Amino acid sequence: MKKKLWGLLVAMLAFLFIAGCGAEKKATAKTAKPEESIQTVNYQTLTKDEKKDVEFKFKTTNDSYGYAVDMIVKNDTDKNVKFNLSRFMMMDPKDPDFQINSSLKKEITLKSEDEIKVDKLFENLSKSDFERSGSYYYLSKNYRLAYLKDTSGLDAQEGSSEQAATPAGTASSTATVSVAPSTLQKSSASSATPAKASTASQSSTSSQRIITNSYQAVALYKHSMALGGRNDIMATPVDGGFNVYSNTDPSISAFIAYDGNVASDGDVTPYSQAAKQTYNDQPGDEQFNPSKY
User: Fold this and answer.
1) pLDDT tens per residue across span 213-251
2) DSSP letters of 152-203?
């Protein structure tokens, strides 16, 4: 009898051990799955509310030629966000000839709930560059990040600007990006605009590519906005799609993703809606067909 009870006890213990291991494996799988399912997107495709959860801070340091600007970005969204560092710029809407491009050429991905510091995003600056009414932008004037006047550390650097060999301290963060600077930094707005017929060569997070060139991007924007008769609208290829703008009307600014979604003023119009047939008695009122361009 004792042997039977002992055997039954051993069997029960073995069963509980096996069941416990199985539950642990399931729990591990469940906790790992959300990490794998986090979506990675380009910054410009975030909604207006999501962009509010991406915080940008800019701080000056000294370099051997004057001032440099470090950027700190905090991502409080539930998505990983991609940036092309070469597409950051300083611009002044009151002076179309003032544009300072980023010194860096690199693509980065900022994970959800993470923070990163980018060293010397801009270099070779003077104090007068920060005294303008301009702002920091990403891709175009459609994505303003912060005012130049809000750049921190400028007053602290002024007293030591002549001591170029001693860099100022910067804020701490969880990661640092250091890449080689590009040869181009300061340029006029007109010289920074690529030719209209440029073809996008950068990758998109979308698996479906409907809009593949600048002509299609312009045509889709004009179709969706009932501007078929306008000849002043152009497009520039950028990471993930095309920036659309007018060379005469500064109020026209949008982003067309490779998948055909149209982003303007923080609102995103899906391709299915943007491509619908319109009835405005203008050229291209029929259902939009990208193969025509």
Assistant:
1) 989 999 998 888 888 778 888 888 887 888 888 877 777
2) BTHHHHHTTTT-TTSPPP----S-EE--PBPS--EE-TTTTSPPTT-B--S-
